[in-house]
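Quick one: structure tokens for this chain, please?
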Amino acid sequence: MTTTKILQINPADNVAVAIINLSKGEQFTINGTTITLTEDVPAGHKFALKDFTEGEDVIKYGYPIGHTTKAKKVGDWMNENCIKTNLAGLLEYTYNPIDVTLDIPQENLTFKGYRRKNGEVGIRNEVWIIPTVGCVNGTVNELAEALRKETGGKGVDAIVAYPHNYGCSQLGDDHENTKKILRDMVLHPNAGAVLVVGLGCENNQPEVFEQFLGEYDKERVKFIVTQKVHDEFEEGMTILRDLYAIASQDKRTDVPLSELKVGLKCGGSDGFSGITANPLLGVFSDFLIAQGGTSILTEVPEMFGAETILMNRCANTQLFDQTVHLINDFKEYFLSHGEPVGENPSPGNKAGGISTLEEKALGCTQKCGKSIVNGVLSYGERLQVKGLNLLSAPGNDLVAATALASSGSHIVLFTTGRGTPFGTYVPTMKISTNTALANNKPTWIDFNAGVIVEGESMESTCRRFIDYIIKVASGEFVNNEKKGYREIAIFKTGVTL
């Protein structure tokens, strides 16, 4: 049961958040001042704690989230109709490192995972069929369906084809992005076996792509070029039967939690995202890193307005410089297409109570807790160091989730206030920001963080969350896996021939 109706998140804030739907005329005492609402305020939305003049900064989470476009009175509903972003173009940044000391004990926890030949660990043991080019999408889908039917799917966690639109008619960065993401998939330890299916005349030539992989397990990764065989279906099934026989013998063993790598993502956010689910992920991320594990934060455009918080947590000047490039390179990408850097959040975000990109960013970045930044990754790059990493990718849910999986994440932890059913090629766990969503969409939502504003402590909620994460890492399916919702999306920036 909700124990409070309103929340001032930071003592410096000049707005407060409605925890439930509030009615015009309701009164609240905040910091010794009585506030009377001048209009209805929906749950998750903000109301003014003071009189605002036009152009005055609106403060939430202790930071400006934009400025007023008109004068507003104490008790007024504060939303995108009266708040505008402060974001502009490229900025120069100064490194002001902060000292971070997190007193989190080592608990020596383990999960049941798959130890691969190269020492990497997977949390799933699946057979994947990956096309080098979109021209063979029909073939890979046919092969996956036939193997599922023939085997009943027994002995492995899933048999999945991953069609996509690319691999040909691409130039420059787009072609490299496709190669990198497909390489990362082939090498991902959640796959016990992979069949790579090529056409033969595509830009992403199978022989060249095989060299691009570098070292790989030739017993568990096989190739077929469909233009070079008489019957690609029969040839493909022969190979898949052998791969399936190998993968189906794999067994789970005890693995230290320090081996776990999680991706941090949010989408369809609301006014509770920065109060419940995102802070929960932040506490969990700090805990996992304290155990020797790894978390990866992406959605670079949703760092705009909160980027200095991350920059000043960089472990050294080199990482600071890389983070500056991470931010400004994405801003240049926006500006080169004639798009504003501070574009407002989506209609769903606005309806949920988020008025500006800064407001979303200040909630978004809470997912990575307070740990030091140990690594900065370019798009398609695989993890090199443990701890907190920043990854270059856009905010789009499927593109960003695919990038997180491709960097090496075993699981994508996805917070949402609006709900979404999608999943990428690793388990994509949905954490709701509010209980109403969890109750309304139980086949989408895997864990409810809404209880944090209903009386359960963050400590208690996080302990339950840790236990659940270990269960999922040990084989328990999340909803997108139960439904078979698994897709990939590759970042595209240039022309199509």
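The CA atoms of residues 97 and 312 lie 4 Å apart.
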